[in-house]
Inverse folding.
């Protein structure tokens, strides 16, 4: 059980950094609406997750 948690720790931290970077960029640009910042955090999290899942980028052109 500990090994699986340790294996998830590194990707989870990467996803967290991506989310925080997107939120920080918007905040530094002057956008402080909490709803927009939460949406940015979710968007920053989705990108690395989709990459980890190996979702085909273009419909009909999946890697073989």
């Amino acid at each position: 059980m500990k090994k699986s948690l340790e294996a998830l720790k590194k990707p989870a931290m990467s996803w967290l950094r991506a989310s925080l970077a997107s939120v920080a960029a918007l905040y530094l640009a002057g956008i402080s609406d909490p709803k927009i910042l939460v949406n940015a955090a979710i968007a920053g999290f989705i990108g690395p997750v989709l990459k980890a899942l190996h979702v085909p980028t273009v419909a009909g052109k999946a890697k073989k």
In short: The mean pLDDT is 80. DSSP finds two helices and no strands in the chain. The helical segments are 2-28, 34-53. Residues 31 and 37 are 8 Å apart (CA to CA).
